[in-house]
Amino acid sequence: MSHRPSLDPAVADVRRAVRASLARLDPARPLVVGLSGGADSLALAAAVAFEARRSDLSATAVVVDHGLQESSAEVAAGAAGTAGSLGLEARVVVVDVDTVGGVEAAARQARYRALRTVAEERGRAAVLVGHTLDDQAETVLLGLARGSGAASLKGMAPMSDLDGVPLVRPLLSLRRSATRAACAAQGLEPWDDPHNADPRFARVRTRNTVLPVLERELGPGVAEALARTAEQLREDADAFDEMIGETIEDIVEHAEAGISVSAPALAANPAAIRHRIIRLVVASEFGASLSRVQTLEVARLVTDWSGQGPIDLPGCRARRVGDRIAFTAV
């Protein structure tokens, strides 16, 4: 009697995670997989290819060539070739990276723009990316170090919106070791990006130095604890956002070249809600993010009003006009 070969546990875990994420999507929606050639995205692409065959899904692997390394075109072509061998349609997209404000952030923005463009071309496909639990832990630590507040500490959501198309992270519950094991079990050779070992980048130092020190000094399970913290903060943030959405409808009015908020209504709310309303108004109306210091300066127009002048903010200006805080474009 012949026996079917047993499925490697890591491969099973990755496929199970992908299947759970796809169950939350419209089964008719096409899929776009962000593929760098690294272990995380390669394990994701292999699992998506397997699920696509089982369920007759349309799936495309998109390899973004950032052009930041001499061999980038060769690496991109190799990743696309691997995707093709898995049974996925593969596409290489070359992008220009404006390094103003940092290479990491600029490359990430260029990459997401490219993925979204292909998703739109594919009929508003869902975009799947390979972030793992380790990436989540690093994000929380970096947010903590920067004093970014709950908005950063809540980390990455399993499913969010990328300018109108779903952005899905199926592997957030899995460690990076699982994706490497899944690749090895399937005979897939991942590419190791040299930038992922470059200590110039804060995320690399967090990954290679900070987290290992925490694990050594505090015991194993730090990464999982950070991921749980992110999940709890995300639940709190969602509840806050729902409360704020109901509150904003009553206290915000559109004004010439901007928007205004009732100062007495802001004053009547707890500081946490007041500050969130201020940040949300600026983000939604002007597409800008406020720092903690900027948020508190605007809040002083409400709680410590003594005739101070306008406050210059990213993309707008805030000032007190009677019993309202007016935000106008600059």
Molecular structure report:
This protein is an alpha/beta fold and 330 residues long. It folds into 2 domains: 9-218, Rossmann fold; 256-329, Uridine Diphospho-n-acetylenolpyruvylglucosamine Reductase, domain 3. It contains 12 helices and 11 strands. A 6-stranded mixed β-sheet has the order 3-2-1-4-6-5, sandwiched between helices. The protein has a 5-stranded antiparallel β-sheet with strand order 7-8-11-10-9. It holds the Pfam family TilS. ATP binds at residues 36-41. It is found in: Cytoplasm. Keywords: ATP-binding, Cytoplasm, Ligase, Nucleotide-binding, tRNA processing.
Contiguous helical run count: 12
Main sheet attributes: strand count, strand direction, barrel closure: 6 strands, mixed
CATH topology of the largest domain: the name is Rossmann fold
Question: Can you tell me the CATH class of the largest domain?
Answer: Alpha Beta
- Amount of beta strand: 15-25%
What would CATH call the architecture of the largest domain?
3-Layer(aba) Sandwich
Q: Can you tell me the overall shape? A: elongated
Give the tally of structural domains: 2
What is the number of beta strands?
A: 11
Q: How far apart, in Å, are the first and last alpha carbons?
A: 77 Å
The rounded Rg comes to 23 Å
User: What sequence of helices (H) and strands (E) makes up the elements?
Assistant: HEHEHEHEHHEEHHHEEHHHEEE
The percentage helix is 40-55%
Quick description:
The chain is built from 12 helices and 11 strands. By secondary structure, it is of the alpha/beta class. The chain folds into 2 domains: 9-218, 3-Layer(aba) Sandwich (Rossmann fold); 256-329, Uridine Diphospho-n-acetylenolpyruvylglucosamine Reductase, domain 3 (2-Layer Sandwich), CATH 3.30.465.60.
